[in-house]
Structure formats: C-alpha cells, structure tokens
Amino acid sequence: MRQIELLAGFYASCVVPSLSQLGEAFTFLYEAWPKTVTEYGPNMQAPCFEYYDERYMESGAFEIYIPILKK
User: Fold this and answer.
1) Which pLDDT does position 18 carry in this prediction?
2) Structure confidence at residue 44 (pLDDT)
3) What is the CA radius of gyration of the chain?
4) Cβ neighbours for 52, distance < 8 A, ≥ 6 positions apart
5) Is the dihedral of CA 58, 26, 45, 40 positive or negative?
6) With contact defined as beta carbons under 8 Å apart, do 51 and 25 qualify?
7) For residue 3, how far is the Cα from the chain centroid?
8) pTM for the full model?
9) Class of residue 21 by CB neighbours under 10 A (exposed 0-12, middle 13-18, buried 19+)
10) Pick from 69, 24, 20, 26: which is nearest to 50 by CA?
C-alpha cells in the first residue's frame, strides 16, 4: 500500500454490500448512473477510492467514491 493525497472535489458514492458485488458497483457508478443524470459525470482523470469502516467488519459492506465533474 501507499499513501496518496486526494484533491478536493465532488464525489459520487454508493454502499457496496460485499466484495463479491464490487464489479457491479463499479459498473453502476461508471456506466449506469451517468446515464441518469445530466448535470454531473465521472471524472476519468482522477482516482476513485474505497472506504472501509466498522460496517465492513460487521457485515462486509463498504463504500466506493468516484470523482465527478459538472458537465
């Protein structure tokens, strides 16, 4: 692992119930969700990240955040 600094900005997020659904979550955030909104879209030049808190230890759930830009 390595530490990186994320730039300030806007992010879309979703809760992923388990690691087995990680692929579905990325598909939703990068393909399905952008088709439903007109004001924002994914910023393909900035990194996304995952956030694991106590929910992961309790149920396996975690969050994914993707950077977004105003269209």
Assistant:
1) 95
2) 92
3) 13
4) 62
5) negative
6) no
7) 18
8) 0.84
9) middle
10) 26
Q: Six-digit token pair at 34? A: 């952008």
Quote the pLDDT of residue 55. 95
> Confidence class of residue 21 from pLDDT cuts 50, 70 and 90?
very high
* Residue 13, Cβ density class (10 Å: 0-12 exposed, 13-18 middle, ≥19 buried): middle
Q: How many CA atoms lie within 13 A of 13 on its CB side?
A: 14
The predicted pLDDT at position 1 comes to: 83
CA atoms within 13 A on the CB side of 4: 9
**Nearest CA among 18, 15, 14 for reference residue 42:** 14
